[in-house]
Amino acid sequence: MTIIEKSDLPYLHIYYQKDLCVLFCRWRMPVELVQVSEGYMAALQFASHLDAHFWLHDLRLRNTYCKKERHWFTHTFVPAANKLLGGSNFIAYLVSPLQRECLLQKKAKVNEPVKQGGENEPVKYSLFLTVHYFTNEHDALEWLYGCRVRIVS
User: Which residue ranges make up each domain of the chain?
Assistant: First the structure.
């Protein structure tokens, strides 16, 4: 197992695990929009150097997104990721069961991107970015591996 690490931000640990072809972003605490944007852009820069298209964001120690963060993600991060990474990109979000419930309740109230299927289905933010939420790291990594296999085939 080869791990390539990025210098840590105080609230986010970023590393790439070469054998899995996965960029791990482990949030360490609740953050504000400034830290969210700094963390995502640091991860994006790191990913662009590694050509990393499969990410796992561990949000279990972090707060859930607010409206401003969702807007920033959709209107700033997604276009930047499309430009820097190109191709197909996948983010598996690892959340606690309580965070998962909060996310589902917020999605019911807010106009989120159209889902492909039921409530536990991936969400496409663009032609090039798909995200999915998990409460189990094994399931998240399995989904990322499946996405990678489909892209390579």
Answer: 3-152
Q: How far apart are CA 10 and CA 113, in angstroms?
A: 31
- Give the angle 61-71-135 at the CA atoms, nearest 5°: 30
| pLDDT tens for each residue of the chain, 153 residues long | 688 887 679 999 999 999 999 999 999 999 999 999 999 999 999 999 999 999 999 999 998 777 899 899 999 999 999 999 988 999 999 998 887 777 766 655 444 544 443 456 788 888 889 999 999 999 999 999 999 998 876
